[in-house]
Amino acid sequence: MHFSELQNLENHRHVLGISGGKDSAALAVYIKDRYPELSEKIEYFFTDTGAELKEIYVFLDKLEAFLDKEIIRLSSGKPFEHWLKVHNDYLPSPRQRWCTRTMKIKPFEKFIKDDPVVSYIGIRADEQREGYVSQKETIKPVFPFIEDGIMRGDVFNILEKSVGVPEYYEWRSRSGCYFCFFQRQSEWLGLKRNHPELFAKAREIEKSAGDGYTWVRGKNLDELVEHAEKREKELGIIATDRSSKLTRWQEILEQEIDEEDDQDKACLICSL
Fold first, then answer.
1. Contact yes or no for 8/111 (Cβ under 8 A)
2. Which of these, 169, 183, 191, 198, has the minimum number of CB atoms within 10 Å of its CB?
């Protein structure tokens, strides 16, 4: 059964989580253009941690206008700093993703309750990804891009012909909180250059963390950006050159290999 036929399921809700990233946004646009009847049934939502980049909110407004439907805002009700204290000042990490569980998954599960739900997820046909998602048995995940053979280049084309690509893709490869521990070293450097106040905030949080934990295992943020600056010079990359084409910078990020790079294991609800 093609995913578009699922709209005929009785007593099911249809939801599509917008992360603020390219893939989920492109999926929303794609479904509206190709399957308008299904789009009318879908509840679009965004789970706001309060630690998002300002560019994400600008992009959400553009997407909402294009879809001509509300993107429902969900929240845990408390800021990250509150949950950090609840977790004894231990920073979240790939092995302890309490931020995703508390600030993304739980608000989502509260939103869908125990209703039978079809959840549309923007994993592309050209990627093999695993991620941290809700395990509720009432949720049926479907992957329209995989079924229709939509790949990375198609996603950029879909966005460029509609709402455009979020501005942060000039220096970042995914959406998510400003302090996301899945960021590459060059992306931490991009944060420092584009949002120095948020970089400073992340550094202060790191310094006050329990047992000397850091956002990235083995290095503190100052060491990370120093290493990223050295690599940038070696590779001839200028991350802040806004005249360079976004697609070229995205290709550089896609090919970049960091020792701690866990891109394929990032939280799907955050980064798609």
1. no
2. 198
pLDDT for the residue numbered 262: 47
Alpha carbon 151 to its chain centroid, in Å, reads 17
Residues 233 and 231: their CA atoms lie apart, in Å, by 5
What are 248's two structure tokens? 């070229």
- Which residues lie below 8 Å from residue 231, measured CB to CB, with a gap of 6+? 185, 186, 237
179 touches 203 (CB < 8 A):
no
Per-residue pLDDT band for 247 (boundaries 50, 70, 90) equals low
- Crossing angle of the two packed helices 22-34 and 54-67, in degrees rounded to 10: 0
Residue 59 CB coordination number (10 Å): 25
pTM, two decimals, is 0.87
Rounded Cα–Cα distance for residues 158 and 167 (Å): 16
In this model, does residue 129 exceed pLDDT 80? Answer: no
- What is the rounded CA–CA span in Å between residue 251 and residue 71? 30
